[in-house]
Each structure stands twice: as structure tokens, then as C-alpha cells.
Amino acid sequence: KQEVTQIPAALSVPEGENLVLNCSFTDSAIYNLQWFRQDPGKGLTSLLLIQSSQREQTSGRLNASLDKSSGRSTLYIAASQPGDSATYLCAVPESGGSNYKLTFGKGTLLTVNP
Amino acid sequence: KAGVTQTPRYLIKTRGQQVTLSCSPISGHRSVSWYQQTPGQGLQFLFEYFSETQRNKGNFPGRFSGRQFSNSRSEMNVSTLELGDSALYLCASSLLGSQETQYFGPGTRLLVL
């Protein structure tokens, strides 16, 4: 059974700082990994999807890396802004024959202080 | 292109009642998934539908059920509500399934009293 862990659970940084969020998964036979952002009381917004054959994926100030062999992904946020404050979640499709569900980590609550 | 919509956005029910939540996917998307989000358990998978067929079901009791219509809109139903069913219910759509980018709706906040 796939398990996804995100560390740290919460992170508080001053504006302008570069930061890294971590995601680890127990079964390395993943098809892809997705990073999402969730604002309080809202739905999830997809940030990046990184395929298993990729090492990195970039979108603006965000960069996601994937190391399947070690079961880890990182989300790098450059020059953080107060608007980046949100919960960040990573998710992988279920391994095995039935790839119709995502397994999520519990998320990292990011606070960027002005 | 309109995003995923969910109705209603907020709902208050009492124990023992039943509730139906609706999800309209992005036009052209045939896969709809449902998740329950609570502070303690995080996001947990409920079920996934594709072309009116349930392809996968999570570890929830039979009180939780769903269906998908020919236009890809989906509903989920919870019967005999319990206090522990209070949660944010999220649906997500994609063209074919979980191996693609998932687009989430704003969720339905259910409070059971």
C-alpha cells in the first residue's frame, strides 16, 4: 500500500526566502507525482505534474524534482511571497493495476511573512 | 473553459439524514473522482467514475455511494449521516484518470449535527 509523507508539517519563512518542501513515498513504482496548492477552505489547484521519466519540472518560481529510486520529491519555491501562503500537497497515483486514485500526503502548511 | 463546479457549497444536516452532492466536471473530461478531506485523516479517496462506470472504490462504508451520468456529471450520496461524516468533499476531473493532471472543484463543506 502506497504511503506518502510530507515534511515539515508546517513552515514559516520571511518574504523573499527560497524554500524547499519535501515529499516521500514508499512504493517507487509510480507513474507520476503531482504537487497541489490548497488555500484555506478551498479546493486544490494543480501546480506541477512530473512524470516518472522526468527528473524536474518547472513553472515560474516553482521547481519540482523527482527521484524515484529514493522515493522522494521536492518542491522548490524561489523568492517566496506572502501570496504563496497555503497548504502544499503532493500526490501519487495508486501503484499496481488500478491507477484510478491518488494517494495524498497530509501537506505542508506554508506561511510567508511580509 | 469553465472549471469543475460542485453544489451545494455548504450543507448542514443532522445525524440519520441523507445527503446528495453534485459535481460537474470540465467539459470533455470523462473521469470524476471524489475525496473526503478532514483535519485528522487528510484527503481520502472515495471513488472514481469513468463513462458511467465505477472503476475504483476507497475504504468507506456502504453508506457512501455515487454515480455518473452520461454527460459525465457525478453525484455522491451519503445515507444515515454520522457526526464523523462532517468534512470537505472534493471532486476532481480529468480526461482519462489519475495518471493525468487532476482538476479539483471548490468542494462541498458538510456539517453533521
Topology of chain A as a string of helices (H) and strands (E): EEEEEEEEEEE
Radius of gyration of chain A: 14 Å
Q: Which strand-content bin applies to the residues of chain B?
A: over 45%
**SSE string of chain B, helices as H and strands as E:** EEEEEEEEEEE
Give the biggest sheet of chain B.
7 strands, mixed
Helix content of chain A: under 10%
Oligomeric status of the shown chains? heterodimer
Number of strands of chain B: 11
Helix content percent band of chain B: under 10%
> What's the pLDDT, averaged over the residues of chain B?
94
Termini separation of chain A comes to 41 Å
Summarize, please.
The complex is a heterodimer of chains A (114) and B (113). With 114 residues, chain A is mostly beta strands.
Q: How does this model look, in words?
A:
The complex is a heterodimer of chains A (114) and B (113). In chain A, 0% of the residues lie in helices and 56% in strands. By secondary structure, chain A is mostly beta strands. In chain A, a hairpin with a 2-residue loop joins strand 6 and strand 7 (62-67). The radius of gyration of chain A is 14 Å and the shape is globular. Chain B is an all-beta fold and 113 residues long. Chain B has no helices and eleven strands. In chain B, strands 2, 4, 5, 6, 9, 10 and 11 form a seven-stranded mixed sheet that branches. A four-stranded antiparallel sheet of chain B has the order 1-3-8-7, with no helix packed on it. Chain A binds chain B through residues 31-32, 34, 36, 41-46, 49, 89, 91, 93-94, 98-107, and chain B through 4, 6, 31, 33, 35, 42-43, 45, 48, 50, 55-56, 58, 88, 90, 92, 97-107, 109.
